[in-house]
Each structure stands twice: as structure tokens, then as C-alpha cells.
Specification:
182 residues, mainly alpha, Non-ribosomal Peptide Synthetase Peptidyl Carrier Protein, Chain A, 2 domains, 0% strand, Retrotrans_gag_dom
Length: 182
């Protein structure tokens, strides 16, 4: 729809056709006496929906991302990485500082500080590797713990024979003894 150069009255009449959903509902609820020009209509719309605009993250906003109490390091790193994708001009040193500040694992922080990465990409790669190692170690520990628990449970009760095994052993019994005749 080419309306450039049209009068304000035409612009105001055509404006509702460009709206959808809540913006259309908002427009239909406007009082005619409030809007006196197309410019004022645009300002009203911008003011009403300003909070709905998606705000892009900055490198500094990454400092607000913290690992949650029950969140694994791997999940925290995934969430942090997703947030970095929203930053238009990522400052590497701020991102590195934010990742370290938000992590809860002291061992992870020690491993990073012990051999500090050259850039954010290297830090993320090392963080993911560390997180995967923790996850696999935790998984192996849980499996070993389950095996131990099963063994303890089995050793505490007498072993029972299956009914099938008893049936199968009947052919191995010795024949009944015969008494000697006088």
C-alpha cells in the first residue's frame, strides 16, 4: 500500500488495516478526541507498545546470568551461550568474566584460572568439556552405586531356587534303595 504523500486523514483511515492482534484491539479502543494527527497516533502506539519490544542484550547484561542452585554446569553453559547470541557486539573479556562470575563450581573456576584461555571461544570449549566430564563421572558413579545397592540387597536374603530348576533336577535323583532279602 503506497500512501506516501497522502493527507493525514487518509493515513489515519488506512492505519488500522496495518494492525493485527492486540495492536488492533488497542486501536479500536482509542477515543477519537485523543488523536489529532497521524504523528500523534504513531506516538500513542509507540508509547503503548514500548514495553513489548524485544530488548537486545549487551555484553554487560551477561553479568546478570548466574548458575541456578540445582542447575548443572552443562545447562548453565548452554543458557549462557544462548544469551551471548543475543548480544550484537560481544565484548570477549566481559563475556569471559561473566561466565566465570556466574558459575557455581569452584573446581571449574580453578581449572579455568589455572590455565587461563586465550579467548571466549576457547573458554566455552573448555567449559563444555569440563561439564561433560562431570556429567559422565556422575553417571558412572550413579551406575556403580546402583550395582552396589543391588548386591547388598541380594546378599541379605537367601537365594531361592526357581521352580523350573527343581523340576529339571528330578532326573538326577538316585533310585530308591532296595532292601536286602533274607
Amino acid at each position: 500500500m503506497a500512501l506516501q504523500g497522502s493527507s493525514e486523514a487518509v493515513l489515519c483511515k488506512a492505519f488500522p488495516a496495518t494492525l493485527r492482534g492486540t495492536a488492533r484491539l488497542w486501536f479500536s479502543g482509542l477515543k477519537l478526541s485523543i488523536v489529532s494527527s497521524f504523528e500523534q497516533l504513531g506516538m500513542q502506539l509507540a508509547t503503548n507498545f514500548a514495553a513489548s519490544r524485544h530488548q537486545r542484550r549487551t555484553s554487560d547484561s551477561l553479568l546478570d546470568i548466574k548458575q541456578k542452585e540445582e542447575e548443572s554446569l552443562e545447562d548453565y553453559i548452554d543458557r549462557f551461550t544462548a544469551a551471548t547470541w543475543e548480544v550484537r557486539e560481544l565484548d570477549q573479556s566481559t563475556a569471559m568474566s561473566a561466565l566465570k562470575t556466574g558459575a557455581r563450581s569452584k573446581r571449574f573456576l580453578f581449572s579455568i584460572e589455572n590455565n587461563f584461555p586465550a579467548d571466549f571461544t576457547e573458554m566455552l570449549a573448555r567449559a563444555r568439556k569440563y561439564a561433560k566430564a562431570i556429567t559422565s563421572r556422575r553417571s558412572a558413579t550413579e551406575q556403580a552405586s546402583k550395582k552396589q545397592k543391588r548386591r547388598r540387597e541380594e546378599s541379605g536374603r537367601p537365594r531361592s531356587r526357581s521352580p523350573h530348576r527343581e523340576k529339571n533336577l528330578s532326573h538326577l535323583r538316585s533310585p530308591p534303595r532296595q532292601q536286602a532279602q533274607p
